[in-house]
Amino acid sequence: MRKTATTPAGGTIPAQPGPRDATDAAQLPDPQRGIVSAEGAEGDVSGVSGSAGSDTDAVILGAGPSFRPGERATVRLRDAGPDDPPRYAPEWLELREGADAAARAHDLLDPLRIRLANLPGRAGLVIHDVGCGTGSMGRWLAPHLDGAQHWILHDRDPYLLHFAAVASPRSGADGSRVTVETRRGDIGRLTPDALKGASLVTASALLDVLTREEVDTLAAACAGAGCPALLTLSVAGRVELTPSDPLDTEVTEAFNAHQRRSGMLGPDAVTAAAEAFAEHGATVQVHPSPWRLGPGESALTAQWLRGWVGAAVEERPELRERADRYLRERLAACEAGELHVVVHHSDLLALCRPTGGAS
């Protein structure tokens, strides 16, 4: 029988079964499993009137828009206190995991492997996954890397840390052991000291929800520790839908404006991160990592559509009437297998100057 990880932050646990067990993890008997509503709100969180006529039409919490400037649509545990951080729904993170894995830029793996292979005097890799969510980055990356690996998972949300620990992979590409440790914390507190001894910093779908100050903090911490950073799946601000619709451009522009609320970088994140790392002397490579969604990804496409259009309407309420029609037609095409969507993202690899004399 598989052990379930309920360790406190900072506890080291044995590595657990790999990606396909993530579904099992979401079904673990957990007294805190009760997920209610986004910031206490009920009903349709898409921001589009009439677009969520049933439970099956509702946005999975975490996939949709926010309710106040600077907030993301999230859920809280039923017994969460007022000071507990909001959280993304594991259901949304699980739904997007396959598309994320298919999209990430494999071209960045070879230069990363070369850097990691040249690390001096290391018995194994120490990898910090920042904003780890349910741990999808580790499930994707660990099987691509040789050697023993110790993953340190960082997230503000202890609930998601639980899922990430339970579903972490057991072994790397060459069969070497993978272990995992959890740390609850905020990226704003990340320092070179916190990354001392790190071989790599990773993050997925994180940069675009950071401010410029937070990106600068991340770059400075990695540079100070002399470790590379692989930062994947940052939104690029471009979407292609086939067949096209005259409202596509307006929705895209409104969504991008929503992403920039309260100083968040949104589609400007990769450019800002590349500049920040370069200022610290890092060599930076950026590669595209688009979601390519067709009939086989209809569930993800439908949830993405509701959240995407909902955020646009939240940013520009005058779009509401036309957006209602637009979303209904798009969802119908999605259900019929007639809709294809490319959601553009970018992956960034920053090779910071090592501090230990490695090349």
TrEMBL record:
<protein>
    <submittedName>
        <fullName>Class I SAM-dependent methyltransferase</fullName>
    </submittedName>
</protein>
<feature type="compositionally biased region" description="Low complexity">
    <location>
        <begin position="39"/>
        <end position="55"/>
    </location>
</feature>
<feature type="compositionally biased region" description="Low complexity">
    <location>
        <begin position="1"/>
        <end position="19"/>
    </location>
</feature>
<keyword id="KW-0489">Methyltransferase</keyword>
<dbReference type="InterPro" id="IPR029063">
    <property type="entry name" value="SAM-dependent_MTases_sf"/>
</dbReference>
<feature type="region of interest" description="Disordered">
    <location>
        <begin position="1"/>
        <end position="56"/>
    </location>
</feature>
<keyword id="KW-0808">Transferase</keyword>
<dbReference type="GO" id="GO:0008168">
    <property type="term" value="F:methyltransferase activity"/>
</dbReference>
<dbReference type="GO" id="GO:0032259">
    <property type="term" value="P:methylation"/>
</dbReference>
